Fold this sequence. Notes:
Layout: H1 20-29, E1 31-35, E2 38-44, E3 51-53, H2 63-80, E4 88-94, H3 101-115
Parallel strand pairs: 3-4
Antiparallel strand pairs: 1-2, 2-4
Helix pairs in contact: 2-3
Amino acid sequence: MATELLTTGSFNRKERIKNPADFKYLFKNGNKVSIPGAKLFYAENNLGINRVGFPLNRGYGNAVQRNLSKRYSREVYRLIKSHLNTGYDMLFLIYPGNDSFNSRCEQIRLLCQKAGLIEE
């Protein structure tokens, strides 16, 4: 991942999608981009902040693998979020396999670029 995208920032509870209806809305009505191993569902939210969720595909390993995958995803999002356009709800759907921090950085960066969410 490009080092200019790595900055520090917090990731608090207001920035998380928790409501199941929001998840369903994004899966059904959100825009979608994909790369091998991951998909991004996103839509404008008119809130002035980005909200994000990290659902995992059914059958994604055991609890340890699921938790590690979500930790990687949250940390990468925390590092890249200051470079994203605001006012979007996003779901990063990650598929099993190739679970490393560096691969997750590349996946999330590519998804955001493909969706046009990274500020120029």
